[in-house]
Each structure stands twice: as structure tokens, then as C-alpha cells.
Amino acid sequence: MNYKMILVTILVLAAVAAWAVSTHRKQNFKTVSVAEFAEIIKDTAAVLLLDVRSADEYSQGHIAGALQIDYHSAHFMDCATTKLSKERPVAIYCRSGRRSAAAAEKLAKEGYTLINLEGGILAWQSNGLAVESNQTQSSNLKTEIEKRVKDIYDEIFSWYLAHMDDLSNKNFNRPEVFSKNYWQIFSAVQRKDTESDELGFFDYDHWIQAQDWDTDLAMQIDSVEVKDDYHALVHSHITNCGNQSPLLIAMVLENGTWLIDDFITPDHANRSEKSEMKLYLKQDKQ
Asked: Please, is 73 exposed, middle or buried when counting C-beta atoms within 10 Å of its C-beta (0-12, 13-18, 19+)?
């Protein structure tokens, strides 16, 4: 066999090997176009969206709803096996498609079902599709929390109006709007009030700053301060009988829902209602 024949043979074998590798990869995961990918991730309950770029890249802009795990992190597989499910397909992407393809190959070998975005987020954006930054995400979260507080307030105020003339009905039984911890403490306070025949720790409820409240009661949200993924403070003020009182509403995320965890009055040295209720209950033990 002469030199040229050997060279041709080597090139043919290399081409066959490359084809085999390519075929093998295609069998492990599916790579789809931007249009197909966009359609697939619409079903957020069925598909998990995964961004395998760095945290810095992710913060600058990512597809809404994407979970971030850095492919180049030494703990990539540990994080992936903790956060992903083999029962739920994973729609995966990176900047240009190279890292996501490598990650998809690795995850597919572990039994995960992968759908890779061809061309990555660069192709996504070049097709005019939107991305969100951490700043956008934070703004959306603040809007969500603000709406939740307003909805709860409207519900409570409607209850007040319906019970204005019924002073004997002083309990507001809406555990679904409060955190588990807050409701446990508040329920204990209600039981103590019922047993003591006194007016009680509260006249009506937590949004009221005075006993002589009237129908001019109103709540205005000034700002929302997100502490972390599970805690937020809503800065507001209550208008009652022509007077305004500042009120901080501590919110906590439980089981996917934002709930009231405490009421704090800044003009009374940040008086915490939960702390006051605990002191009130503690009196029985002294």
C-alpha cells in the first residue's frame, strides 16, 4: 500500500469515526430549532428549562423561568442530579449550543431526557425572542408580592365592613393568608381571648391601628423590599380616621404562595406583632 493509499484510508476511517460519534450523540438527546424550543418550553409544568452558563452570564440575560447550573462547575453533576428529574424532560441551552450539547450528552448517559437549543441563547435573541435579567426578575417578583398584599387587604376590609356592627365576632378566620408560624401564634391568642371574656388582644385585626376605625380605612403600598427568595418586606401606610400610620408587612413564601408572617410598626420602635403576641401568651406562664 503506497503513501497516498494509507492517507486516504486514514481520512476515511476518521470520517467514519466522526460520523459514528455524531450519530451516537443524536441518539442520546435531541437538538431543535429556536421555534421548536420556544414551543416546547411553553408547557412549564411538563418541561424543566435549564441554563448551563455561568451565574454572571445568567444574570445578564436568560430565558424566563430557567434554572441555572454552571456546566463548568466542579459540582455540575451533583447539582443536576439534585435539581432535575428523570421523569421530566429538560430543555437545555447555553450561549451558542456547545456547552449545552456537552452537558446534554453527559446527562443523557445518566438517564435524563434532553432537548438542546440549537445555536443557544444567541440564536434565541437573534430570532427576536425575549430574555430577562435578574433586575427584571426582581421587578416581576415585587409586582407579584404587591398584588398579593393588595388582594389580602381587600378581602380583610370586606370582612370588616360586613362585621362593623358585630363586636362579638372579633376573630378573622383566614389561615390561608398567613404563614403557618404566624397562624399558630395568632390562634393561641384567639383561644386565650375566648376563655378570658375580655375584649382581646385585638379589637378586630392587625391592619387596624386604633379602636375607633371607620370606613375611611385605606392601605397604600409605598415599596416592596425583597430580602431573598423566600422573604420580603412591604412598606405601607394605613389611613384611619384621617390619620396615617406606617406599617411594615413581613411576607414569607410557603408552598409557592406569599403569606403574611408579621406586622411591624416603625413609629413604635419597630414593634413586632408576633413578638407582642408571644409576650401576651407568656403572661399565663408567669
From this structure: middle
- Helical pair 76-83 and 98-109, crossing angle rounded to 10 deg: 70
- How far CA 149 is from CA of 178, 221, 258, in Å, comes to 11, 9, 9
62 CB neighbour count, 10 Å cutoff: 23
- Measured in Å, how far apart are the chain's first and last C-alpha atoms? 102
Measured distance CA(171)–CA(186) in Å, rounded = 10
Looking at 91-250, list the stretches that DSSP marks H as alpha helix, in order from N- to C-terminal side: 98-109, 120-126, 134-162, 180-196
Q: Domains along the chain?
A: 3-126 (3.40.250.10), 135-285 (3.10.450.50)
For 35-66, the three-class secondary structure string (H helix, E strand, C coil) is HHHHHHCCCCCCCEEEECCCHHHHHHCECCCC
Clarify whether 94 is annotated catalytic. yes
Residue 81 half-sphere exposure, CB side, CA atoms within 13 Å? 7
The four Cα atoms 232, 235, 238, 243 give a dihedral, to 10 degrees, of 160
Give me the catalytic one of 94, 117, 156, 277. Answer: 94
pLDDT in tens, 166-215: 655 555 567 888 899 999 998 888 787 776 655 444 443 455 444 455 56
Three-state SS for 235? strand
Q: What is the pLDDT of residues 205-263, one digit of tens each?
A: 455 444 455 567 788 999 999 887 789 999 998 887 777 888 899 999 887 789 999 99
Is pTM, for the whole model, over 0.70? Answer: no
Q: Angle at CA 152, nearest 5°, toward 146 and 154?
A: 100
